[in-house]
Amino acid sequence: MIENPEIRAKILDWQKRYNIQDGDPAIALLELIEFIGPMRGSAAPAEAGEYRAAPVSAAPISANVDVSSESLAEAMKTALLPVIERMSYQAQEMQQKLEHIDFDKFVKQIEAYHEGIDYCTKKLDVVKKETDALVIRVDKVGSQIKPITRGAVVTLCIFFAVLGAIVSRLLVL
User: Fold this and answer.
1) Would you list the domain boundaries of the chain?
2) In a 10 Å sphere around its CB, with 0-12 CB exposed, 13-18 middle and 19+ buried, how is residue 37 labelled?
3) DSSP state letter for 39
4) 52, containing H or E segment
5) E strands within 3-160?
6) Could you list the residue ranges that cross the membrane (predicted)?
7) Could you tell me what percentage of the chain is helix, strand and coil, using 3-state DSSP and rounding each to the nearest 5?
8) CA distance 27 to 7
9) pLDDT per residue over 60-88, tens digit each?
10) What's the pTM?
């Protein structure tokens, strides 16, 4: 595994951010690159198609490693093959889903939804106007009603008391 704490912390952050598990091929690729080390030229010119790897400064390797570009490419393909297969499978699934979607039906549903919203908005506008008109009417009627005074209440009480006495006398006879 990677020895440098700074690089290890960055890799852990990367794993958390993109939800990459420990057994993922991307981690294997990182370990392969760490093993090979950064590429550098050497004093002796490399043969065509070959690179000479330098030791990693954080995790020193005792000797230079000669790696051909073909073997490096093959190792990277092997490490990335499961990811590529998974992505191609997901792309095929998405393409199949897109082929099965009836876009005309979907567009009609959206249009019906928007027509429903427009209808409700118009109805709400009508109800608001009617409510405003009723509020204005209630205000006008409320301003026309004069409050009952104490004298009117006392007069009504006396009137009904006298009326009750007359009715009770008539019923007794």
Assistant:
1) 5-101, 104-172
2) buried
3) B
4) strand 50-53
5) 50-53, 65-68
6) 152-172
7) 70, 5, 25
8) 13
9) 444 455 667 777 777 777 777 777 788 88
10) 0.29
